[in-house]
Amino acid sequence: MQDSSLIDIVAPQRVRFDAPLHLRSGAVLENYELVYETYGELNAAKSNAVLICHALSGNHHLAGFYADSPKSAGWWNNMIGAGKSIDTRKFFVMGVNNLGGCHGSTGPASINTKTGKCYGADFPMVTVEDWVETQVRLADHLGIEQFAAVGGGSLGGMQALQWTLDFPGKVRNALVIAAAAKLTAQNIAFNDVARQAIITDQDFHGGDYYSHGVVPRRGLRLARMLGHITYLSDDSMAAKFGRELRNGALAFGFDVEFEIESYLRYQGDKFVDQFDANTYLLMTKALDYFDPAHKHNNDLSAAFRAARANFLVLSFTTDWRFSPERSRAIVKALLDNEMNVSYAEISSSHGHDSFLMGDHHYHDLVRAYMDNIVV
Amino acid sequence: MPSSGSRPDFAAIAAWVKPGAKVLDLGCGDGSLLRFLRDARNVRGYGVEIDDANVLACFNNGVNVIQSDLESGLLNFESGSFDYVVLSQTLQAVKNTENIVKEMLRVSKEGIVSFPNFGYWKNRLQVVSGHMPVSETLPYQWFDTPNIHNCTLGDFEEFCRQHGARILERRVMNGNHQVKFFPNLMGMLAFYRFEQQK
């Protein structure tokens, strides 16, 4: 019996894989490590496992807190836990830091055992397919042959989609939240501006900034500020900041005047201290490359012929980065294949970031769906 | 067959649906008709519903639901992809009635509709006495009713003739009982099964 006062305290685990990983780009990683966290207990039949995949700036720390840090709530702590919508009394939930990440799994800032130096620019491009492959290997390592559900928001939802295509026998339900089956030209454009901000920072050094003892702070900060704008809605920014002035009056200068400037600069500064610029580049590329319909003559319905899972698809009304229309395209492809699918379009003012918020209706929908999963 | 409980209208629809059929339920409410059809007739299917609380209720009922506005058509659904499309007590509340019926005939082999018969004698009596009717099947006041396109059996049959829908079967109910005589006067709820005129 777990001490209830410790129930929210979690610790990451680490596993090393020595079988070479052949990446979609053609590159091969001879070995790599993945960092992951788990919550709840795996049942005897190993039928209650749920994999939650993270988005661009997320990681394996989904829920709970670290013992030494009371402010270290996981990024989906409002969704996952005992008695929460994804109930850890029923499910064994796991989060993995994706390959190429910067929170413990092997990535550009890790030491390349061949050279004894950081990978830096030598770290290969990774794709959603590659991540799913590594997640399957981790599941194999833990003896999990099939997940009750694989899910996530945004880029995490894309991984859930890829799971149903590449390993249809290994996933019974897919939770695809605020996602899309591919990026639009506008999405790719935003990503490239972010990348250009990083790459043209004079401290980038072609990606090998680690050996120069610097980080491309200005570029990563700009990338995050730009990204942040696209995660919010016009309405939510207007409601939260409007044209409020920091010091009550115009100063006729380029320092912070409007509250929104203060907010974005703060978010940018905070992010630079937590995130690696090379990982940001890799994650945005993985987003750009994701397009499961491409090898089916751009016919998404044909792509989903392989899938066997049941699907929950959720979108948010004010999400303009991955709009409801993008989710409806996924639903259409699933309907064409007579898959079990439920779709809800949630009214929320928070834009793309809505998938991280605590909206009651949203959480009730996820709870109802998860409650009906038989383990 | 599982009990239809207090919903004789569910049993009436289920009686027309072949086992294992693929069904689309438009304006499916809390999903209880779909659940009944799944349990009673082993149907596969989807509901379409706009209201948040109803969508959540569908999730809780464990039926597939697609949150969408019927008024904007059924673009998510391919032509001829269903055995039956059901519009259960919703016809009278849709704005673009002609388009919905056209879409039903596009996506499905057969359509099934049920609606409260405005020609029911109690309704007629209230109109004659100078008031909009309020009855078991039309429980709203004139100022808060969602029912903007009420019709009688005669009206609907005329509508089908004009819109290329061939009526295959009709059933008229008064509570639990089937109405055989003077259905347009004695019937509270009307059920029709129809297909595209060939």
- Let me know the largest β-sheet of chain A: 8 strands, mixed
Terminus-to-terminus distance of chain A: 21 Å
Distance separating the two termini of chain B: 34 Å
Q: Please provide the count of β strands of chain A.
A: 14
Uncertain ranges of chain A? 1-6
Question: What's the overall average pLDDT of chain A, rounded?
Answer: 96
- Name the beta content range of chain A: 15-25%
Percent of residues in beta strands of chain B: 25-35%
Helix content of chain A: 25-40%
Helix content of chain B: 25-40%
Describe this structure in words.
- The complex is a heterodimer of chains A (375) and B (198).
- In chain A, the strands form 4 sheets. Chain A has an 8-stranded mixed β-sheet with strand order 1-4-8-5-11-12-13-14, with helices on both faces. Chain A has a two-stranded antiparallel ribbon with strand order 2-3. In chain A, strands 6-7 form a two-stranded parallel sheet.
- Chain A is globular, with a radius of gyration of 21 Å.
- In chain A, α3 runs antiparallel to α4 and α4 (217-231) packs across α6 (259-272).
- With 375 residues, chain A is an alpha/beta fold.
- Mean pLDDT of chain A is 96; it is low at 1-6.
- Chain A has 10 helices and 14 strands.
- In chain B, β1, α2 and β2 form a beta-alpha-beta unit.
- Chain B is an alpha/beta fold and 198 residues long.
- An 8-stranded mixed β-sheet of chain B has the order 3-2-1-4-5-8-6-7, sandwiched between helices.
